[in-house]
């Protein structure tokens, strides 16, 4: 077994269609770059390459407590540096800055604070609690390279604080409840991800965090989930139809009637046709494959690991799905699975395993949540490179 520390260079095949030609720092890809719309011209041969010198805009949607912060730590880790809040600013800022990325939380566009919502009897998920006009105006301004004065929603006080200045970064990530709700904002996104955690798993995670770490009672957690549910179903969940990639987190099917919700079945649903990235695949693009990799190369204790890959439809659109049920016993053995994945956007064979090992302390590191979040991080790098025509060097 080859370990992640003795990696060999990736073949062109495993680098996928974003393989760079030439040796300079800024190189060219054979894909048209442009505004986030769909294209059917994927892999149809060389076309004019126009580098766009502007921030690349990424949207991440998920309910609260679904692992967005963990996900963002994995994504920013792909670009190196430690994300930090704006220095000298509001200590309760929700923004995280690193050399290449700025991650903002869309909670900052709540137009009703905690008390306003109570007075009007609306949840934080309701559209009337968000300022979509300002969100659209400011995402457009960042895309146009202009600094903004973004509001801050203070989760400690429940109030709206004075705004903070955000200058245009290379990659601007908007994460939160409604990144695809408003069409104006949606149309500005170059790549969109929806983190779809099933009710059972969400509940288990909430109990773990809010009971163990925040001292909430089981009843209050149940009540808060139930209170949010109608608005979640009405306003948050439907946004997944607009995502380029959806990470679905479900209870395992390997243990009948599993109550613990520790072993997860995770599905990466990848839309076809966004010119900014190519979907990855297992073994053979377009085939349907069920794979139990537990054998001589991969250690598997009960209940084992099962992969699935195949085409499907999602909200009437063509997608491919990669699924992993179970968890790794020895994370370094992920390299064996990685060797069977293609078009991953990794820059060398073993980069996925290396990233996973680097972040092995994060929740979900041994299962499909960590694996697919890492892959999405690499896809975001590919999206940036295609649009900007600039190469990002891998970081260890
Ligand atoms: N992949 C995972 N596997 C297992 N548990 C996870 C995973 N991701 C997150 N969790 C659990 O869920 C909790 C919430 O995660 P995180 O803080 O990243 O979510 P969030 O969406 O940013 O939450 P919020 O919006 O409420 O701040 C974590 O404390 C952790 O216990
Ligand atoms: O759904 C949420 C997104 O994070 C929060 O509940 C919402 O932003 C309101 O925040 P708070 O509960 O701190 O008043």
Helix % is: 25-40%
Could you say what the CATH topology is called? Answer: Rossmann fold
Describe the biggest sheet?
Answer: 10 strands, mixed
The largest sheet has its strands arranged as: 2-3-6-1-7-8-9-13-12-11
Number of helices: 10
Mean pLDDT: 88
What binds here, in terms of ligands, is: adenosine-5'-triphosphate, ribulose-5-phosphate
Structural category:
alpha/beta
By CATH's scheme, which homologous superfamily applies?
Answer: P-loop containing nucleotide triphosphate hydrolases
In total, how many domains does the architecture comprise? Answer: 1
Return the CATH class.
Alpha Beta
Listing every helix as H and every strand as E from the N terminus to the C terminus, the arrangement reads HEHEEHHEEEHEHHEEEEEEHEHH
Q: What's the alpha carbon Rg, rounded to whole Å? A: 21 Å
In the CATH hierarchy, what is the architecture at level 2?
3-Layer(aba) Sandwich
Enzyme class: transferase
Main location: plastid
Protein name: Phosphoribulokinase
GO molecular function, one term: ATP binding
């Amino acid at each position: 077994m080859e370990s992640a520390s003795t990696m060999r260079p990736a073949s062109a095949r495993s680098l996928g269609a974003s393989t760079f030609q030439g040796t300079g720092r800024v190189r060219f890809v054979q894909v048209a770059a442009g505004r986030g719309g769909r294209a059917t011209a994927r892999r149809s041969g060389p076309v004019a390459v126009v580098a766009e010198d502007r921030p690349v805009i990424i949207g991440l949607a998920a309910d609260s407590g679904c692992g967005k912060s963990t996900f963002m730590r994995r994504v920013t880790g792909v670009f190196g540096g430690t994300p930090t809040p704006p220095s000298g600013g509001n200590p309760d800022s929700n923004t995280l800055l690193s050399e290449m990325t700025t991650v903002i939380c869309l909670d900052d566009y709540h137009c009703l604070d905690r008390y306003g919502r109570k007075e009007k009897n609306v949840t934080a998920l309701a559209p009337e609690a968000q300022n979509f006009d300002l969100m659209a105006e400011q995402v457009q301004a960042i895309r146009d390279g202009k600094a903004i004065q973004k509001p801050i929603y203070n989760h400690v006080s429940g109030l709206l604080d004075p705004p903070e200045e955000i200058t245009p970064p290379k990659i601007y990530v908007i994460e939160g409840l409604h990144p695809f709700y408003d069409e104006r904002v949606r149309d500005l996104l170059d790549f969109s991800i929806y983190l779809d955690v099933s009710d059972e798993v969400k509940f288990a995670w909430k109990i773990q965090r809010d009971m163990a770490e925040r001292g909430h009672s089981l009843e209050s957690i149940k009540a808060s989930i139930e209170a949010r549910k109608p608005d979640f179903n009405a306003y948050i969940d439907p946004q997944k139809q607009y995502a380029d990639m959806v990470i679905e987190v479900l209870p395992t099917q390997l243990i009948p009637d599993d109550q613990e919700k520790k072993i997860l079945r995770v599905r990466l649903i990848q839309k076809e046709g966004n010119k900014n990235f190519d979907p990855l695949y297992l073994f053979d693009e377009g085939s349907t494959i069920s794979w139990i990799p537990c054998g001589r190369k991969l250690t598997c204790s009960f209940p084992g690991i099962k992969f699935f890959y195949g085409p499907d439809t999602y909200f009437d659109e063509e997608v491919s799905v990669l699924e992993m049920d179970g968890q790794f016993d020895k994370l370094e053995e992920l390299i064996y699975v990685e060797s069977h994945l293609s078009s991953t956007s990794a820059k060398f064979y073993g980069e996925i395993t290396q990233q996973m090992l680097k972040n092995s302390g994060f929740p979900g590191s041994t299962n499909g949540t960590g694996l697919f979040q890492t892959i999405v991080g690499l896809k975001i790098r590919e999206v940036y490179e295609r649009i900007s025509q600039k190469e990002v060097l891998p970081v260890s």
